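Hi Y.,

Following your request, here is the sequence exactly as I used it, all 134 residues.
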Amino acid sequence: MHEMSLALAVVDQVEEAARSHGATAVSIVRLQVGELAGVVPDALGFCFELACAGTVLEGAELVAESVPGRAHCAGCADDWAVGMPPQLCCPVCGQATTELIAGRELRITGVEWAGEPAPSRTGAPIPPMIPEES
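Below is the corresponding structure, written out as tokens. Let me know if you'd prefer a different format.
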């Protein structure tokens, strides 16, 4: 189950950010999860809860925002929601020369320290966990 390794990576990154900001507890972790990322949201939530045990994230809520898959046709410049299973041929011109422009995300978008919103970022942002193709 790769959701456990993803949950552990999220916990590690948030713990590092908490340490750098002097936070002693985390109340909310917000993620964007693309519908094409191959992640089962319920499994990720279950694994996140297990991964948080004994850390500054223990008891933190995971708020996952689903990002619909979208594609772009190089031939006619149409954009469309690909759905599941993904429709990768352009619905306007039928070409298969498409580029996925959304839906593969797995990114931490926000963290709230217990009792207060997360401070403004002063360092580099937390990088996406799944590299996006250019």
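The first helix runs from residue 2 to 21.

Thanks again,
Q.
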